[in-house]
Design brief:
Elements: H1 13-26, E1 31-32, H2 34-40, H3 48-61, E2 69-70, H4 71-83, H5 86-97, E3 104-106, H6 107-121, H7 128-139, E4 146-148, H8 149-157, H9 160-169, H10 173-181
Length: 187
């Protein structure tokens, strides 16, 4: 009788336990720093653009802005990327692009974050400039050179091609696979 029987109402506890033990193994202090986050994802030695992107991702996952990702923030991030509804993901992407936090994305912000993502994920079929122009052409309805959250969500949800482009370009599931399966081992 060595194995613990699961009780009714245990819910997702075994999965949480799996994440918790992995998190604590990777991060015994219970607080993941930016350096540890990059190490966990195997993303040390990035170019400056890549560094900017990873720092933005880290800052968005750091919900209480204390400079660390704790276990609850870690789980919230995993839940968003794995189970999040599309509008939740779009809000998250918007936050990622809105580098200065003013509630709007301008071309410069979108261009810099897309350049950074390409540095990590490899280049897609279009340049960062083309990508930025396509996004603004399609969804900047009032042509003011800025996208509000509403313009962004409505524009992307209303255009299947754009939705696919954005979700593919900013797909974080590869990041999460590393988190779920443990650190990337170099050969």
């Amino acid at each position: 009788m060595g194995a613990k029987e699961s009780l009714p109402g245990d819910g997702p506890a075994p999965e949480m336990h799996h994440y918790y033990s992995k998190f604590m193994r990777e991060c015994p202090s219970g607080q993941l720093t930016l350096h540890e986050f990059k190490k966990l994802l195997g993303l040390q030695g990035l170019d400056p653009q890549g560094e900017v992107y990873i720092k933005r991702v880290f800052d968005i996952f750091d919900l209480n802005k204390d400079g660390f990702i704790d276990f609850l923030e870690f789980i919230a991030a995993i839940n968003l990327v794995i189970r999040g509804k599309i509008d939740q993901k779009l809000k998250w992407y918007f936050k990622l692009y809105d580098a200065d936090g003013n509630g709007c994305i301008d071309k410069k912000e979108l261009l810099s974050i897309f350049t950074a993502i390409q540095a990590i994920n490899g280049h897609t079929g279009m340049s960062a400039e083309e990508f930025t122009n396509v996004i603004f052409q399609k969804i900047d309805v009032n042509n003011d050179g800025e996208l509000t959250l509403e313009e962004f969500i409505n524009g992307v949800e209303g255009d299947a091609g754009l939705m696919e482009l954005i979700t593919k370009s900013f797909d974080l599931s590869n990041v999460l696979k590393v988190i779920q399966n443990g650190r990337r081992h170099s050969i």
